[in-house]
Structures are given as C-alpha cells and as structure tokens.
Design brief:
InterPro entries: PFD_beta-like (IPR002777), Prefoldin (IPR009053)
Strand order of the largest sheet: 1-2
Order of helices and strands: HEEH
GO biological process, one term: protein folding
Helix content: over 70%
Protein name: Prefoldin subunit 6
GO molecular function: protein-folding chaperone binding; unfolded protein binding
Radius of gyration: 25 Å
Pfam families: Prefoldin_2
Oligomer: single chain
Length: 124
C-alpha cells in the first residue's frame, strides 16, 4: 500500500469525523430553533390574551410555587421584552444554521473529492 493511499485514507477518516460533527451541530441548532419557535408562539398567545383583558383585570405570575399579583402594564412589558429576546435568538440561530449548512456542504464536497482520489489511487 502506497503512502499516498494511506494519507488519503487518513484524510477520509478525519473529514468523515468532521462531517459527522457538523451534522450533529446542525441537528442541535435545528432543535434549538424549534424550541425557540414554540416559545415565541406561546408568548404571542399570552400577548393576544392580554389584549382581551380589561385594564383593571387581575394578572398573576407564577414565581416558584407562589402566584404573585402583577400589574397589567408590567406583565405586558415583560411579555413584549421576552418576545423581542426570543426573536433575536431566532435570528442568531438562523445565522448559525446557515453557517453550519454551508460548512457541512463544503465538508461533504471534500469527502467526495477524497473518496474519488482514493478510488483512483487504488485502481492504479
């Protein structure tokens, strides 16, 4: 077995491991994006419910095991801020997904090139 084939096999193993890591990272980012989307929808529902309430309505917030009365203005402000935060996180994760997708595709192309080179060397 020539040194070229051995080097190509090592490169193939290294690239394959890197590719698998990128795929795992992408899957984690997708999961994170889905979780954030769920949180966003949940908070938008709360926001919609607040719009239906009268200004003097009683609003309670669960803090640990205790329900604490909260001012409507404060509750609306908190939910609005939470929505803004979640949206910013979604934007960040979207950029991360795009980057991971590009890196994964690049690594996949490297794998194909290495496999092709290895097959050509083996055929000689």
């Amino acid at each position: 077995m020539s040194a070229t084939i051995t080097a190509l096999q090592r490169k193939l193993e290294t690239d394959s491991a890197a590719y698998q890591t990128l795929q795992k990272d992408y899957a984690k980012a997708v999961e994170s994006r889905q979780r954030l989307d769920s949180q966003l929808q949940e908070n938008k529902l709360v926001q919609d419910e607040f719009k239906l309430l009268k200004d003097d309505a009683n609003i309670y917030k669960l803090i640990g095991p205790v329900l604490t009365k909260q001012d409507k203005t404060e509750a609306v402000t908190n939910v609005d801020k939470r929505i803004d935060f979640i949206q910013a996180e979604i934007d960040r994760v979207e950029k991360q997904l795009k980057d991971l997708q590009e890196r994964t595709e690049k690594k996949r192309m490297e794998l194909v090139q290495t496999q092709t080179a290895l097959q050509q060397q083996s055929a000689k």
